[in-house]
UniProtKB/TrEMBL annotation:
InterPro entries per UniProt: HTH_LacI, LacI/GalR-like_sensor, Lambda_DNA-bd_dom_sf, Peripla_BP_I
Cell cycle recorded as keyword: no
Domain spans labelled HTH lacI-type: 7-61
Pfam families: LacI, Peripla_BP_3
Species this chain originates from: Isoptericola jiangsuensis
Alphabetic keyword roster: DNA-binding, Transcription, Transcription regulation
Keyword Transcription regulation listed: yes
GO molecular function term, any single one: DNA-binding transcription factor activity
Stated name of the protein: DNA-binding LacI/PurR family transcriptional regulator
Coiled coil: none
Amino acid sequence: MAVPNPPTSRDVARLAGVSQTTVSYALTGRGTISAATRAHVLEVAASVGYRPNLAARSMRTRRTGRLAVVSGPTLDHQVRVLAGAGEVAAAAGYALETRTVDGTVEERTARVRELAAAGEHEGVLTLVPVLPDVLTDPAAPTGERPERTVVVAETTFDDHMRSVGDLADAGPVAEFVETLLAAGHRRFLHVAGSDQYASARARRDAYLAAVDRAAAGPATRDVVSLGVVGGTWSPEDARRAVHDLPSDAPPLAVVAANDLLAAGVLRGAAERGWSAPGDVVVTGWDAAEMGAYLTPSLTTVDVDFTEAGRRAMQRLVAAVRGEEPPPRGAAVARIVWRESTGPLPGHRPAR
């Protein structure tokens, strides 16, 4: 039998081999159906292009069927995060709306609090860092839908104001330092991004912590950090920072906060007659397409922003439905080693 256009919940029930009640439970997150049954119904609904009548649902259940995502004023990678979040929201039967906020962390937190208090959305996912007091308690009891709008953050701050979350994970910075140490490097420099960004602060802090650990180690006490320079996302500022280094800075390992800054470092090094990766080794972040075509090609961090968006929205949907949050899963960032990094000239690895 052909499926009507638009399809109804009755059509989804027939094709999935379940009752309409089960379809309703799967789409709203209510009831006691198994995760496998819910996934099967959602797959069938998506395959025939079924979308719930959100207005009718709201009248019956007092649920709006709407979720909001709060992003910053510059979208760049957030577009891919939104794509992943939208994919999960649509499969779960929710309409997704976006809001843009700017300002200090206190101002952003106030805007998110106002959005939640308006009651127009069942849940709010914020992609910009906010203070913990605006968030729904992750330890709240599950099994029942919350009465208030749920607020979940992709990135937030812990009690020590350190940014946490998939996109704030700066773990690869420590791996950069540790790997370059093992390759014989002892002089390091960090070219930082803008301090207004949680990601820049997290990478700076991870660099400082990694270098401090190395300097305290019995085999690497000769490690020296030339400090943290920069503080913008401008490759020109990174180029100038290299020109400001003393002439005896090489051999030097430079950890840049993103690929544009790393490109500025490479340019500045070339202008000073320093070879890469001979005199200077450089790492970036973001896996910008141009990085693979630089000379030398750039070692970087590839972040799966779409998967980060999926995970964040899965946490929000689970919280809205009163379900257990999904496990965090593997890190969304991985290092891509290329030509801009290598061993210290003359270094012999330990055996």
